[in-house]
Amino acid sequence: MGHIQITPSILNSDFARLGEEVARIPGADWVHVDVMDNHFVPNLTFGPTMVEALARVSPVPLDAHLMIEDADRNAPAYVEAGCGSVTFHVEAAKAPVRLAREIRSAGARASMALKPATPIEPYEDLLPELDMLLIMTVEPGFGGQKFLDLCLPKIRRARAMMDKHGIETWLQVDGGVSLETIERCAEAGADVFVAGSAVYSAEDPDKMVAALREKAQAAQA
Ligand SMILES: O=C(CO)[C@H](O)[C@H](O)COP(=O)(O)O
Ligand SMILES: [Co+2]
Q1: Which PROSITE patterns match (predicted)?
Q2: How far is the C-alpha of 209 from the C-alpha of 192, rounded, in Å?
Q3: What's the gap in Å between 124 CA and the centre of ligand 1?
């Protein structure tokens, strides 16, 4: 298992002051940017132009989570926009292996996401093509939803597959991650944690990043 990384999502931060919002979390490993197109999910956020502007001012690299249709065509723009990691949904990709290779060769980390009802088993042989696997722990589309415990067995199975193949793929969880739920995720084998409302509803977001990190490290040990 890799070292613990905390990746705050700006989804529930103040979109009128995004530059200031990312400056409040210098202790984070990445900033998670949720790109939504109102087709793959019933919500709309921003596109590559906005992400590029944010990449210029963010104190930490951007981790793009693309909840958009036609990932094959649309994902490469987020590498160009300056994201260090680009996650596409397998449900929206026609050729996930080709897309992962394209993202890597363009210079970013390639990551693939699974919605709660999408099984991991059909994708076992793809894992070596990925730098990170994202297992969603809510239905994608909105921040502030309740963590779905039903996703924990899939996290365990994904971690066991990675161990079996002896690969270093990071395992990210996203949705409802908080001080109450992060230990369960770390125990199951996750090592990269997205937390949106937990971080941005805290009085001191950077202190919350540190508290989440401490809990996950204790649970992993
Ligand atoms: O991908 C997402 C929603 O689709 C967000 O990253 C996620 O919901 C983060 O917010 P929270 O921690 O409040 O659940
Ligand atoms: Co997300």
Answers
A1: RIBUL_P_3_EPIMER_1, RIBUL_P_3_EPIMER_2
A2: 12
A3: 25
